[in-house]
Write a structure and sequence with these properties.
about 260 residues, alpha+beta, Arc Repressor Mutant, subunit A, Alpha-Beta Plaits, Methane Monooxygenase Hydroxylase, Chain G, domain 1, 3 domains, 3-stranded antiparallel sheet
């Protein structure tokens, strides 16, 4: 896990609900159990400031960083998808984007990654579909200065066939199976009397692995998925273990946020 990804997870999973800010010293201590050294933390923070995710703030413990409105939108959208509550309700309609051609490769790749993270998939180089409109979409398009026409659309055909050719369901299913097997081993290696910093580290790795699926799986409803979808088994295990490990992980975070 790299420092930037770990910081996103830390702010989203713990700091967002605690005011969205922390001192540099606290960030360094909180990422130490993940074997992320202080220079890597500071470099990642500087990069996130340049990208508009974090802003400098003066705290009682010294210099620190807080989330920006842009970051709040991303963290809240991520949390809704990570900790999905209840059954997904799909209206049968698609949110369609027709994006103007983007010549610069770097902008094109950033847009592709951002749209995939928001749950969209390409029908062609310039046309994308998603289950629903994302509240982050406007800010992403504006940030890249890209124009897109948006439609609320109904597909005239077999929706399951559309999904099967638009998303790599076999690849996603295999990734869920692999993740579940590896994660069971990861959790199984945690001693029952583990210190809270160990629990924090394991839970952080659990969350990071699960968060990576947001780039691949848009959270399709059951009626669009093959039978016995492994993503549901993986989700049940993630939710169970994330909740079980949370008290000790939260205690570790609180201690380092309050220590002088």
């Amino acid at each position: 896990m790299n420092a930037r990804a770990a910081l996103f997870d830390l702010y989203g999973d713990h700091l967002r609900s605690r005011g969205g800010r922390a001192s540099v010293a606290a960030l360094v201590h909180l990422l130490a159990p993940l074997d992320i050294a202080a220079p890597a933390v500071r470099t990642a923070v500087s990069r996130m400031v340049r990208q508009g995710w974090l802003a400098p703030v003066r705290l009682p413990r010294g210099p620190g960083y807080e989330v920006t409105p842009k970051c709040v939108r991303r963290l809240d959208e991520t949390a809704l998808r990570i900790y999905r509550a209840g059954t997904i309700i799909w209206t049968g309609r698609w949110h369609m984007l027709v994006v103007e051609p983007v010549r610069e490769r770097s902008r094109r790749e950033r847009l592709k990654a951002d749209l995939a993270f928001l749950g969209y998939a390409p029908l062609s180089e310039t046309t994308w579909i998603g289950l629903r409109a994302s509240p982050e979409l406007g800010a992403i398009l504006a940030g890249e200065n890209i124009r897109a026409d948006r439609f609320d659309a109904v597909f005239d055909g077999d929706a399951r066939a559309l999904v099967a050719r638009t998303w790599d369901l076999d690849g996603i299913a295999s990734a869920y199976e692999d993740w579940l097997a590896q994660t069971v081993d990861l959790i199984g290696g945690l001693p029952g009397d583990a210190a809270d910093d160990q629990v924090f580290a394991i839970r952080s790795r659990l969350l990071h692995g699960w968060r990576n699926f947001l780039f691949r799986d848009p959270g399709l409803p059951a009626e669009l998925l093959p039978p016995d979808w492994p993503g549901e088994r993986a989700r049940a295990y993630f939710e169970q273990e994330a909740a079980r490990l949370l008290p000790a992980a939260a205690a570790f975070v609180d201690r380092h946020l309050t220590e002088p």
